[in-house]
Amino acid sequence: MQSNETAREYTGFCLDDTYWPQDAINKNQLFKKGQRNVGSRISYNDTGDWVSFWQQYFHYVSMEFGELHAFGSWGDYLHQTNWEYEGLVSMIVMRDPLERFLSRGKCGDFHGTLASGDPTNETQALYWEYANSDCADNYALRVLTENSECVNGADTSTLCLDSAKELLKRFTFILDQSCLAESMAALGKKLQLNVSASGFEGTHRRHNDKSIRDRFGNDTLYDYVRTRFQRDIELYEWSKRRSIVVCTYSGT
């Protein structure tokens, strides 16, 4: 978040009182409805009230979609938001699922137990465990579909995929992380904001000397992950054609 009063950046889900100016806490009548923090469920009809309130204090709100426990599935939370509200501009960054897998993402303990870098002979067993984890299973699709229980590895249904697509259609902008710098510059131009590509070049590390298959270091593991994450890959391929910048890089 970026505060209008004190420059501050925070990325997360449950933003409690710690990250609010005191007068915001005092003024926010929405707290009286039992919605004690930003991460609480916001109904479709409440979206406008929340946006109007936030805009007094923050330039933007950002979220990283990690594991969600207190409020159910992310899809349940995201699908009920009024993304069409005229005072709201929304943006989502999509990523190649195989690139995400190799980066270890935000996937529970694996983010810490897997050493930085691509799979090696020493870490193959851990990567197999990671590939079979519930956390890694069609990660973005599980976040974006309305009912995450439809996600089931290679047996994930097309209805599950279609639900995620319908949500993405409601966002103002889609960005492809494979060319994030160019996409941010285009977004700034579109919104007439002072945003340049500078500072975003290093957020997506390209391994131009190796294909993603080679980076896996194990064809069996690569083929298994591609099969298990097939719906997530289909969602990414669909979304990148709708990105504000259609990137030329294609790792999958």
How would you summarize what this structure contains?
By secondary structure, the protein is mainly alpha-helical. The chain is built from twelve helices and two strands, in the order αααβαααααβαααα. The two termini are 32 Å apart.
What would you note in describing this structure?
The chain has 252 residues and is mainly alpha-helical. Helices cover 37% and strands 3% of the residues. Helix 8 runs parallel beside helix 12 (230-240). The protein is globular and about 55 Å long. The two termini are 32 Å apart.
Show the helix and strand layout.
Elements: H1 22-27, H2 47-54, H3 74-79, E1 91-94, H4 97-103, H5 110-113, H6 124-131, H7 139-144, H8 158-168, E2 173-176, H9 180-191, H10 212-216, H11 219-228, H12 230-240
Parallel strand pairs: 1-2
Helix pairs in contact: 8-12
* Main sheet: strands, sense, barrel: 2 strands, parallel
The strand order across the widest sheet is: 1-2
Multimeric organization = single chain
Uncertain runs are 1-17, 33-39
> How widely separated are the two ends?
32 Å
Q: How many strands?
A: 2
Number of helices: 12
